[in-house]
Hints:
The structure is a homotetramer.
Chain A: E1 8-16, H1 21-31, E2 35-44, E3 49-57, H2 65-80, E4 83-88, E5 93-99, H3 104-114, E6 120-127, H4 133-139, E7 143-145, H5 153-166, E8 171-174, H6 183-188, E9 193-197, H7 209-216, E10 220-227, E11 237-244, H8 251-274, E12 278-281, E13 284-287
Parallel strand pairs in A: 5-6, 5-8, 6-7, 8-9
Antiparallel strand pairs in A: 1-3, 1-4, 2-3, 9-10, 10-11, 12-13
Helix pairs in contact in A: 3-8, 7-8
Amino acid sequence: MTKSTHNNAVLLMHCPDQQGIIAVITEFINTNGGNILYLDQYVDRVNSVFYMRVEWDLDKFIIPKEKINDYFNTLYAQRYNMEYRINFTDRPQRMAIFVSKMSHCLYDILARYTAGDWEVEIPLIISNHTDLQDVSRQFNIPFEVINITKDNKVEQEAKEFELLEKYNIDFIVLARYMQVLSEDFIHRYPNKIINIHHSFLPAFVGAKPYHAAYERGVKLIGATSHYVTTELDAGPIIEQDIVRITHKDTVADLIHKGRDLEKIVLSRAVEKHIQRKVLAYKNKTVVFA
Amino acid sequence: MTKSTHNNAVLLMHCPDQQGIIAVITEFINTNGGNILYLDQYVDRVNSVFYMRVEWDLDKFIIPKEKINDYFNTLYAQRYNMEYRINFTDRPQRMAIFVSKMSHCLYDILARYTAGDWEVEIPLIISNHTDLQDVSRQFNIPFEVINITKDNKVEQEAKEFELLEKYNIDFIVLARYMQVLSEDFIHRYPNKIINIHHSFLPAFVGAKPYHAAYERGVKLIGATSHYVTTELDAGPIIEQDIVRITHKDTVADLIHKGRDLEKIVLSRAVEKHIQRKVLAYKNKTVVFA
Amino acid sequence: MTKSTHNNAVLLMHCPDQQGIIAVITEFINTNGGNILYLDQYVDRVNSVFYMRVEWDLDKFIIPKEKINDYFNTLYAQRYNMEYRINFTDRPQRMAIFVSKMSHCLYDILARYTAGDWEVEIPLIISNHTDLQDVSRQFNIPFEVINITKDNKVEQEAKEFELLEKYNIDFIVLARYMQVLSEDFIHRYPNKIINIHHSFLPAFVGAKPYHAAYERGVKLIGATSHYVTTELDAGPIIEQDIVRITHKDTVADLIHKGRDLEKIVLSRAVEKHIQRKVLAYKNKTVVFA
Amino acid sequence: MTKSTHNNAVLLMHCPDQQGIIAVITEFINTNGGNILYLDQYVDRVNSVFYMRVEWDLDKFIIPKEKINDYFNTLYAQRYNMEYRINFTDRPQRMAIFVSKMSHCLYDILARYTAGDWEVEIPLIISNHTDLQDVSRQFNIPFEVINITKDNKVEQEAKEFELLEKYNIDFIVLARYMQVLSEDFIHRYPNKIINIHHSFLPAFVGAKPYHAAYERGVKLIGATSHYVTTELDAGPIIEQDIVRITHKDTVADLIHKGRDLEKIVLSRAVEKHIQRKVLAYKNKTVVFA
C-alpha cells in the first residue's frame, strides 16, 4: 500500500564503547557523499556498550547500495567489534498479523495502514478462528485460518511457516493472538515477533491478567508490548503504558478500559519497529527517539 | 499544629447491598437536624456490598455527639448488618512517622504539615538510624531512635508500642522505613499503618525493586502506597502512580526519578487516610473522591 | 447493529440543593418496584446545585413506562424545581458522524461500533469531501457528500437537516469535520453535537493548533472533546488528555502524535454521552463515573 | 552544601547545521585526552540548526582549563558560526530563590538541596513578605525581605541587584514569587530566571489561573516552568505537566491539587538547568535527556 519514496540507509549498531566511533562513522558517511538525516547514539556506561542509529540519504552516496554492507563490515565492524544491521528504506518491510477473536488491535493497525501512516506492507492475516475474517475482507487482505490445538501445533505451525515464506514476511505482530508459539517458531523470528500483553509486565504474567489485577486491587492497569522469546511474557519490552482505574471498576470494566491501552501500546511498538528504531540487546531494548 | 475548626461527623460503612439504605440514613441525618456536607456511595454489584461515606455538620444535630454511635448502632447498623465507624472531625488524628535514612518522604510530609495542608497532629518520629534527627529538629518534632536487629526486635518493638501509647498515636506512616514489622505489631494497627513501596505492585515485591526494574528493562517505574498486612507488600493498595523511563536510565537514575513518585504517592495516600476517605475491605480499598 | 437487551430508565437531573432529595427519589423508585442499578450524585456546594444520575431496572416497576415522566414531573420535578430527563435504554440512540478528509477518528468509532462496544446506531455519515467514502463502504454505512462553501451554507445545511430528520438522528459527532456550523444548526442540537479540538483548550483555539503549539514550544500537546456552542471551541468540555512531546518534534510529528490523542479523547466523550453520563450545565459538564 | 567532586567541562552549543560537526568536536576532545562522558545532539531540520551538549572529563585533558575556551573559539566556534558556552563542573552554580507567601515550592527545593540531590549552592532567599522567614531559619539560609510596591520597584530592585552581586548569584528561581520583575531586571539575567506558572501555558496567562480553569470547566490542570522574558508568561518553556480534575473540584481543590504539580514541575526544570541541559533558543528550549 505505502511505497516508500525514500532512498535511505539505516545503520543500527552496538559495540564495546570506545572513543571516536561517532567521528569515524559520520566521517565515513560524509566523505562518501551521504547526507545524514538522523543520528542518535547512547552509551551504556554501566556495561560500556555504545549504541547508535544513523540514517543517511543515498542519492549522492558514492558506494553502491549493494556494496555498503561489505565496505562497512571490512572497514569498521570488525575493527570495532560491532554487531550491526544496515537496512534500506526503499523496500517497505512486510508484516503479518496474527489474531484470534478480538478486533480492537487489528482495526487500529489496519486503520493506520490504510491511512498510509506507516511504511509497511501487510499482505497476510493469520488466525486460529474465523471471527475476524470479515475485518480482513473489509480491508481486502488475505486471511488464513490455521486452527491450533495441543495435538496439531507442529503441523499447523509448519503451515504457518509456509505462508510466512510465501508472503515474504519480515516480521509478525501478535494482535491479541491467544496462542503460545513453539520454541522452534520463536527461534525462526528472533526479535521479529511483537506481542501485546494486557498487563504492566512483569506483574500478572500469563493468562487472565485483568482478573488478577482486579483481585489484587491495583489502582492502575497497564499494557506491555515486547518481542517474544521462549520464556512466556519475558521478552525485551518495547513500550508500556497505564490507565487509572478505581474500586468501581469490575473485571469487565478493566477489559473495556484496557482495550484502548492495548491497541495504542501495540501500535506504538509496531511503529518504532517499522522505523527501525528498536535495538534489542540482552533482553532489553534501546528505543531511539 | 492544625486544630480543626470543624464539628462534623464522618460515617464510613459497608453492608450487604439492600434497597433503601441511602434513603434511610440520609433521612436519619436530616430529620435530626444534621446538614449533609458530603455523601458518596458505591455498590459493588459483583459481591453485593454497599459502601458509603457521609459527613454532616453537627452544629444543629439534636442527638448528642457521645450518643450518636449508640443510636446509629441500635437503629441501623444491626438491622442492615453493617460494619461502620463514626468519627468526629473536631479532634485531629495523631500520626507517627517511621523513617530510616532517606529524607524525601519525610520532608514532603512535614512541609505539608507545617503549611497546614492536613488536619493532623504529628507528635512523633521514630527511626532505626540517627540520620534524620536533624530534620526532626528543623521541625521541632520528637525523634526517637529505636535500633532494630534480628535479635532485639521483640524488645525494641515493645519500646515503640510504649511510645505510640504515650503519644496517643492513631496511625503510622512508614516513610521509607526499611524494616519489616512483626506480625504482632501489624495486628495492633489494622489498616492503620501506611507504607510506600517503590515499585508498581505486585511487580517487584521485596527488596531492591529499582534494581529489578532495571534488570527487566521496563519502560515505566512505579510506586505503591498500601496498608501493611502480615504478607510482605501484599496489603490493600491505596494509591499508585508511575513515571516514564528510558533505556538511558541507570539504576541510580531510577532511584533518583523514583523519589518524586514515592513522596507524592505516599502523601496522596496519607491525605486520603486523614480525610477518612479510605475504606479497606477484603484486601482492597474503596477510596472516596 | 447493537440492540440493547436492557429495559432500564435513566434519570439525569439537577436542581437547587435541598436536604432529602436522594431519599425521596430512591424511595420513589424502591416503593414502586424499581431495582436501582446505578446511583451517583454530586452537590456543587459553591453554587448550591444538586446533580444526580439514577438508573433502574423497569422489569418489575409498577408505573407504566409511558407514564413515568408524568408521575415524576408531577410528584417531584416541580416541587424541587428540577431540570431533568428520563431516558430508556431499550432504544439505542442514533448517531450521525460528520467527517472531512482524515480517517483516524472515523475508524476508531466504527471499530468500536462494529465490535459491539457501544449501544448505539450509526445510520449516517455526512462529509464535505468524498475522501472517506471508501471507509463508509467498508462498514456499509450510508455516506452523504454535502459540499459546503461560504455561499451555499444555508442550503447545504438545510439538506443536512433533512438527512438528520430522515435518519432519525439523536446526536452528532464531528470526527475532525473541518467546517464551522451555523448558529441555526447549533441551536437545533443543544449539547448534542460533540466535537474534537486538537489542542488542550482553551489554549490554541481555532485553526492550526499544532502549528501554534510548535511555535510556542510547549512540552505537551492536548486534545479536547466538547459540546459545540455558538462560540468557537468554547463549549462545555467533556474530556481532555495530553501527550508529551520534545524539542525534537516537528509540526508533522505533532500532527502524527496528536492523532492517537484525538481519537481516544473523542471516543471517550462519545461513550460517556451514549451512556447518558454527561450532564451539561452552564458551559461545564458533570461527567458521572 | 554540595561540593562537586567532578572535574568536567560541559559544552552547550548551536550553529547552522553542517555535516561533520560531531566528528570534528569529538575528535578535538579525544585527541587532546578528554574522556567523553555524555554526548547528545539534535538537528532541527526545519530551521537547519545543529544543537549539541558534550561533557568530558578534564583529568587527562592536555589543554589547560583556562585556555579551553580560547582554543575552542579559535579552532571551531568562529569557523562553524557557533553560539556556545563551556562551563566547568568543579564550581557549583549559585542559586537565589525568590518567594512570597506559599511554602510548597520552597520546601521542595530545600529538601532536595539538603539531601544533596543537586550540585548547587543556595546562599540567598529573597521575599517581599516575611511569611517564609521561619523556613529559611530551618534551613539556615539568609533571608532578605525586600518589600515591593508599584512606587518603590526601582529602588527595591536595586537592593536586590546588590544582594545578587554580593552573594555571587548565577541564576534565580521564582518559587511562586508573586511579583512581576522589571524589564531591566529581566535583561540582566537572560535565560537565568526560572519561573513556575500555575497553568498549562499558553492557557490562562496572568493572574488567578486556577479560577480561570474552574470557570472554563477544564478536565485537566497544568503547571509550566519557563525562563522569564519581558512578555508575561511567554518565555521559553522548560517543563510542563498536568493532573486530572473533575467537576467535583472547587477552586480550592484546584489550588490544593496544583501545589504538587507546581513544585514537581519547577524542581524538574531547576534540575535540568543545574545540569546545564537546557539550551534556550528563539523562545523555545532544547532540553537534553
